[in-house]
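Workshop exercise sheet. Pairs work together: one partner reads the sequence aloud, the other fills in the structure field after running the prediction. Swap roles for the next sheet.
Pair: D.N. / O.F.
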Amino acid sequence: MKDTSTSPAGTSTPADRARAAARHELDRLWAAGTDFLGTEYAILGGAMSWVSERHLVSAISNAGGFGVIACGAMSPELLEAEIAATQALTTKPFGVNLITMHPQLEDLVQVCLRAGVGHIVLAGGIPPSSAIRAIREGGARVIAFAPALVLAKRLIRMGVDALVIEGAEAGGHVGPVSLTVLAQEILPHITEVPVFVAGGIARGDAIVGFLEQGAAGAQLGTRFAAAAESIAHPRFKEAFIRANARDALTSVQLDPRFPVIPVRGLVNDGSQRFLTHQAETLRRFQAGELSKDEAQLEIEHFWAGALRRAVIDGDVDTGSVMAGQSVGMVRSVQSVEDIIAELVDQAVEALIRRSDRREH
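Structure field:
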């Protein structure tokens, strides 16, 4: 951002001094996050399958944030190529998100370590101790997701270096608890490692609120998914711009015997068809046409390939348009640099307002 600490004439004005003080305070508030990440701003990009690849990741890192590659179902060879391609676009720090259930998790960890990736995010469940140990012995830092205080404490005992607490407001696969509750449950009690907040965040003043509660920084996905550098299809981004917060709902489960993993996305024809598909599958199960396992597979396979159809092909009608509730605050396609600059400016303005209130 442009330095506004002095006026054009070289004399400091009260407004200049207030802004400089607020920016200094912001740097103090998220110092634990920026020191840990090695970045100018403690703003992480959420790892989104098909979206968080070399272009978006490098753009976030180049703008002073911390980009994170979404490995997803990539093979070790594909991940190695993606890391190299990202390193060709940025010299700044970035991380890699690995799914703990990946059958080649150990190989993926080694790919990251050989490539000199400094931060590895383990997602999708409690990470195995062997993976945490291998990452730390390889000289990298481990970030893990903590959906509850008891798990946060357990992960710290297992050796993770930082945590992300993600609320149900987030897009994609989510837990049942909102970020406002998780923050109250976890932030006052975890001081050993940096804790980053995620889920429903779209403004810098909101980030400040969590920093003042003890967070080290924030992770955003939805706003970056609609960024100019995102490879998502124009129709995917247009769907974000048109949407309101109430349009981003979690998938509905019709019968507790056949669990549906909660996924937050924009309601569309695919969402309605999924309900019909579940009802028909239940009818076939009750008629004896399908076993319980077969019926569960029928339900789980409905969305196979649906995220790629939406993100890459632009099928926003039947594809899975994963989005967080912050989608209601996405109003245009902006560059990553502009998004981050806007977040920082909002954070600074919020701190100026706080200072003004204290003085009066």
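Discussion prompt: The longest helix spans residues 336-359. What would you look at next?
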